[in-house]
Amino acid sequence: MRPLQGLRVLDLATLFAGPLAATLLGDFGADVVKVEHPRRPDPSRGHGPAKDGVGLWWKLLGRNKRTMTLDLSTPGGRTTLLRLAAGADVIVENFRPGTLEKWDLGWDELSAANPRLVLARVTGFGQFGPYARRPGFGTLAEAMSGFAAVTGEPDGPPTLPPFGLADSVAGLTTAYAVLTALAARDRTGRGQVVDMAIIEPILTVLGPQPLWYDQVGHVQPRTGNRSTNNAPRNTYRTADGGWVAVSTSAQSIAERVMRLVGRPELTAEPWFTTGAGRAAHADVLDEAVGAWIGCRTRAEVVEAFEKAEAAVAPVQDVVDVMADPQYTALGTITTVPDPELGPLRMQNVLFRLSETPGAIRWAGRPHGADTDEILTGIGLTTAEIDALRTAGAV
């Protein structure tokens, strides 16, 4: 028994934040139906590398979802969605504000069809405000939130992440928001709207920047890999050309690191007793740590740090990750059989539950693969489905 078994989710969203939220629900047992336009599939099917013409990103993002096609802008598509909504618990959508309303599929119509429905609306800037109708992507949220402003070297430009950071954080948050709304429904018997703006969750994970500015006027600068809160904290090159990351957020760890690298006298300096004091002398500490690490291989450095109970990690690329013994022990990368491409190795479900674990039942399925089965499941006859197909609604 999966913890979300019996939960029915319609995923109307495209690209990343909304679909990722639906994926996370599906990983723990929800019956997720991915609804795509008949002639314009989710663009994630074409993002990034492909094998034999099949997009690999979709195999991850589309896992545990049944797929169907439906043109919501047509009369038949509208009617069919309302029938699907009547039996659903959750709809996830990311159309620009006003789009569903233009099709007479707004909250009033959906909640009338199913008063217990939770509608998760994921957009760049939220459902209201001066930017609400702008096109919104995670990159804009990474810039607007302050993330890019604090990322990169002090004398370099603001830096954007080379992956969908803001989208992913918003996807995680949307899944949490949906479950929160469902918990409220259990008490009230009524569904509600989740308004998720991608610009907001990433601002939360940036920490207390607004509080710092409000109370003491502090604007966090770009510091590269260094921290203004502690040192040594950086990446260091090893003798064999590898890299390691060192963190000393705790005073005891900082002291162990300096003893390990042969500079115990630095721990007696008055400034060494606080994280901010150490950060102010990062040049001295980085030179000491970097010189010691630069004379040893990455494996030797990691082994020595572990023996000294000091915090270190190798800087790994995906090749290292796939072979890492800790990830292997946790089962973080799992193998999923796929009828199109054969065995696929991908990230496992996000966390482990001792009694009701999640599971990947299948990878992303072909466009519209389950349309007839899903429509038959809500009572449509073969003739009705053929009529929808003739009209271009599916």
UniProtKB/TrEMBL annotation:
Keywords annotated in UniProt: Transferase
One Pfam family hit: CoA_transf_3
GO molecular function: transferase activity
Similarity field: Belongs to the CoA-transferase III family.
Record's protein name: CoA transferase
